[in-house]
Amino acid sequence: MAFLEARGISSGYGEVQILWDISFSVEKGKLTAIIGPNGAGKTTLLRTIMGLVKPWKGSIILNGEDITRLPPHKKVEKGVVLIPEGRLIFPEMTVLENLEMGAFTSRAARHYRENLERVFTLFPRLKERMKQKAGTLSGGEQQMLALARGLMSDPEVLMLDEPSLGLAPYLVLSLFDVIRRLRNEGMTMVLVEQNTQLALAISDYAYVISNGRIEIEGEARKVMSIESVKKAYLGM
């Protein structure tokens, strides 16, 4: 059964329509990948689900509840968390202070200690640098911090927008190991990612978006074997 659903979502910026009647669903405990070319509308879809972009029509359902009109902070309280493209950490604050900012909701505050312990287990380097200013971290460490801060929000659904962007290949593999580990622990996730091969390799289900519309969907391994996907996204 779907845990998070978008039903007939259309949205855009100003008078420019980006998404056209998009419907997709995410099962609880599964990792769902959204792939497609630059400018296809992947980020806009995540921002619309989060409430950062107002949908023109359609609805967003979380565990049977319509959350379409809730503001972003109320969606975080419900457990919908977005780790945006570009990290957007607080550079003048310490690593620990950034993590504390992730736990601002009453829901997250209740599990602060256990979540902090969890992120330090996942990212021991952050524990070593917890008193260091976030702006002095390497790019890879900043991405770890962005992911860890999202986990501090105690998510029911974790949405990741281009987590590997700008990272060295060995850091990308390390990051995807953590994402795979979270999936194996049963975390519900939505992954938007340009590294199509890696994204499909660790996902359960996948959607291919092009020009603001869903063109292909299916089990990730089956999507990976489709000729048009191989040619367009896997360089085969």
Report the helical percentage.
Answer: 25-40%
Q: Classify the secondary structure makeup into a structural class.
A: alpha/beta
For the termini, the CA-CA separation is: 34 Å
Total count of helical runs of at least 4 residues: 11
> What percent of residues are in strands?
25-35%
Cα-atom Rg, whole angstroms?
A: 17 Å
Listing every helix as H and every strand as E from the N terminus to the C terminus, the arrangement reads EEEHEEHEHHHHHEHEHEEHH
- Give the low-confidence spans: none
Total count of strands: 10
Describe the structure.
The protein has eleven helices and ten strands. With 236 residues, the chain is an alpha/beta fold. The protein is globular and about 45 Å long. The model has no long low-confidence stretch (mean pLDDT 93).
Topology diagram in text:
Layout: E1 2-13, E2 16-27, E3 31-35, H1 42-50, E4 57-62, E5 65-66, H2 72-78, E6 80-83, H3 95-102, H4 106-109, H5 112-122, H6 124-128, H7 139-152, E7 157-161, H8 169-184, E8 188-192, H9 196-202, E9 205-210, E10 213-219, H10 220-224, H11 227-233
Parallel strand pairs: 3-8, 3-9, 6-7, 7-8
Antiparallel strand pairs: 1-2, 1-4, 4-5, 9-10
